[in-house]
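Hi there,

I know you've been waiting on this one. I reran it after we fixed the sequence typo, so this is the corrected version. Both the input and the resulting structure follow.
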Amino acid sequence: DEYNKRGKARKFFDGLMQVLGIRRLVQSALDMSVPFRQGATMLSPRKIDVWLKGFRANLQSVLSPKKFERIMHEIRKDPDYHDMSKDNIVFNDLGSADPNLHNEDFRKSFIYKIPILSEPLKASNRSADAFLNVTRYEMYKKMRRVLEQKGLTRESDPLAFKHMGNFVMSMT
């Protein structure tokens, strides 16, 4: 009977956490593994430079919202930024009203309204977004140079650039 009570209590608690959107939040809180999970495909001699730049941004952004904003400002002011968007590159932005720009699809949990709890969660999201955004940016620039060295331009072969953008997004 005692075992049954604990099982019911555990199910109730699990259900409550699921409904409030906390379970996924807690599971991914303070998660610094993005460079080693989603970035693992770039741990090769040909792409390690891209991975290192992303990892550096990841570490810099975890404790500094200003550094994250600076990184994003640099990406947005790049002359190729609009071409990147046309080629299906999506840059994550936790602060955006558009849920498609969020790295994780969390419901707006009340946890984000509790300062002592929200800051580590925001730091984790910021570091993940910094890694992903910088690696997408750097990989796009690197692959664009390769296409241009082959004599391709966005005007002459827009499909090649779309495929490149899709590839970059798949890799990250």
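Quick highlight: The helical segments are 2-20, 22-28, 34-37, 48-62, 65-76, 81-86, 115-149, 158-171.

Best,
R. S.
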